[in-house]
């Protein structure tokens, strides 16, 4: 038993170190609102260093977990009041994105260099929870953003390994209200996210301010105009977005996500919004080679963008596709009896290869 616990701790530290490498972890989140009142929270998750071995977890009501803490597995114990479906990375306990049966969406985003949790105090381990398990606890405990804010006040969020980076979080409830949680200087800070976009560092307020540097961007084409003795005219459609940053840094992705989201036509239905979310996020797939100099790519994976998800809170559906299979798959939480279903964790992909269908012509 002791050997198993030590193995788990070692694995957790390994996962924590994944979150300490600043050059290859990224996430991009957008939010779309349909004419029928549905709100869709969509996002990508990237890691170019290795296969995250992502899985989905189905968590029934009453399921009890215990948080990891530095050097141990005996942190806060928590039981699920609400059942939920989540997408976990590296370990089934580390849910990065999920939806519960009450219609609350929760997800974590990498946040290096700007967040700082409070120091772990062994005397408070019964109320201490690892940052990578906060999503699981919130999904099992809360139904609204207000409940999330109150719940976070009652716990100590800590890192499993002090060498690891911090993360920040996005929570969206049934009403469409969305907040971002960042822990800076050991203090939790919530921001109302009416824009609905989130990436990584720097902090959320800085990202909003930085949008003002792109005040010239607009949908459509730029107007032709005189330029000295010349007349300048656009070569084609879309010239209104000339100057938009094209790199994959978090500030640049934030600007592009905000532009693509706000210029997109409002979808009619929840499903329309889900499909639009996947289309927009196509623009944020990161080819694995761009992150590493001299072609020194450490992992044999087809993309740094390992999966993309979209969550429909109103209809209790969570969708995903992966780097190995671009077919969109869906969990309908209304069809799951969370009082009877058994806990399970299953790989997002059974086969690491994009399916190809041959079209037969007679």
Q: What would you note in describing this structure?
A:
There is one protein chain. With 362 residues, the chain is an alpha+beta fold. The chain is built from six helices and 20 strands. It has a single domain (2-205, 267-347), classed as 4-Layer Sandwich (Penicillin V Acylase, Chain A), CATH 3.60.60. It has an eight-stranded antiparallel beta sheet with strand order 14-13-12-9-8-7-4-20, with helices on one face. Strands 1, 2, 3, 17, 18 and 19 form a six-stranded antiparallel beta sheet that branches. Strands 5-6 form a two-stranded antiparallel ribbon. The chain starts with a helix and ends in a 15-residue tail after the last strand.
Give the second-level CATH assignment, the architecture. Answer: 4-Layer Sandwich
Summarize the biggest pleated sheet. 8 strands, antiparallel
Work out the radius of gyration. 21 Å
CATH class: Alpha Beta
Terminal Cα span: 62 Å
Fourth-level CATH superfamily:
Penicillin V Acylase, Chain A
Total domain modules: 1
Question: What is the overall silhouette?
Answer: globular
pLDDT below 50 for ≥5 consecutive residues: which ranges? 1-11, 20-24
Say what the CATH topology is. Penicillin V Acylase, Chain A
Spatial order of the strands in the main sheet?
Answer: 14-13-12-9-8-7-4-20
Strand fraction equals: 25-35%
What is the chain-wise order of helices and strands?
A: HEEEEEEEEEEHHEEEEHEEHHEEEE
Q: How many beta-strand segments?
A: 20
